[in-house]
Design brief:
This protein is an alpha+beta fold. The protein has 2 helices and 3 strands; from the N terminus they run βαββα. It has one domain: Alpha-Beta Plaits (2-Layer Sandwich). The termini are far apart.
């Protein structure tokens, strides 16, 4: 396995892990052991690791900006009052 990215906050590592998993790439978050929140043990912080054969693809995925869903794909809020029903 290779380290594809390093983070200092656990939630950032978990978001990146989710991005990779959504593309079918398995990954592992390492170095989460710390007595203090936000301060990770080890000199490299939190590491996100992938299989050697997935390394280049994983780097490309993480380098690309995370695009939110287009507005057309977001379902309308069905609990909102219809226009004029206020």
């Amino acid at each position: 396995m290779k380290v594809v990215a390093e983070f200092y906050l656990e939630y950032e590592a978990e978001i990146a892990k989710g991005r990779l998993e959504s593309e079918g790439i398995q990954s592992v978050v390492m170095n989460l052991n710390s007595s203090y929140p936000g301060v990770q043990m080890g000199k490299h912080g939190i590491q996100l690791m992938v299989n050697d054969e997935d390394f280049d693809t994983a780097r490309a995925i993480l380098a690309a900006p995370a695009d939110p869903a287009p507005a057309e794909d977001v379902p309308a809020d069905t609990d909102a009052p219809a226009e004029g029903d206020v």
